[in-house]
Amino acid sequence: MPPANTPDLRKLVSKLPQPNFQLLGRRPAPLPLPANIVCFQRQRADELNKPRRGRALHHRFVLICALRTAVTVCVDDRNIRLDAGEALLVFPFQFHHYVDPQREDIAWLFVTFELGDAEPLAALRFRPFGLSGALRALAAELVEAYETERTEELPVLLLALLLARIRRLKHATPHHAPPPAPEPEQGLMLRINQIAQRSGAPPSIKELARALGISSSHLRARFRASCGVSIGRHLRRLRLEQACGLLRLGPQRVSEIAEQCGFGSIYSFSRAFRLAYGISPLAFRHSGRKNPTLTGRSRVRKRR
After folding, report:
1. pLDDT by residue (tens digit) across 89-98?
2. What is the domain count for the chain?
3. 213 and 162 belong to one structural domain
4. Which of 106, 110, 87, 135 is nearest to 39 (CA)?
5. How far apart are CA 185 and CA 189, in angstroms?
């Protein structure tokens, strides 16, 4: 039996027209398909932050479906409460980790994938959405196909359909989700984040400019004009975000974390951390290890 909310096929068929030319149909628009799909689940809240390498930062999309138990998802500098029955799409190169589970037993589905064009999904950034019956049914088909199919064609098509359905939702911002911020020049910021992620040590502005094939002065001017903040401040924020994850999850001493994140000394690291978050690194480690909030002096200035 079809689900109760499934449209009646006979009624829909009765509304179809009688075409004069049955061989002339609608031409499809270009359809970007997801690739390299991985589906997995978490059943305990303490499994959410694995692998334990600090806050996650990678080039893939992450579709998170909270089927049971509410948890706060920290994405960049925002804390988003994801309730049971809701989902969230994390974009490539967004730092994210998880805090404040409602209880330890959870049922969360994760679908990670690559997609060439992120623009059609831009409205979903930082915005949780409800898992309707239709979306749940599609997600169930996707997981079943992922587990049983020998080839990737059906999971790819099902995920593409799921994303198309999600894009069509009426995105009324939930009460616990902040309004979306103005978008900077994503291409430049994403390329810089990619280079920073690949580098063993935090890259200098000169190294970034060389990798991008432009001068340091051009890179500084272009980044500030497009992103509303200096590239030096952005790189410092990336290092501090990495330090937050290591303080929260890693066993290293604060001095080791300072060195690993590219700070010249524990004193310069502590000063930058306190200026950004209003708390010392050691106090942050001992305060329940939640994601700190940027202080007023260090928030990225929004473009007018």
Report:
1. 998 877 788 8
2. 2
3. no
4. 110
5. 7
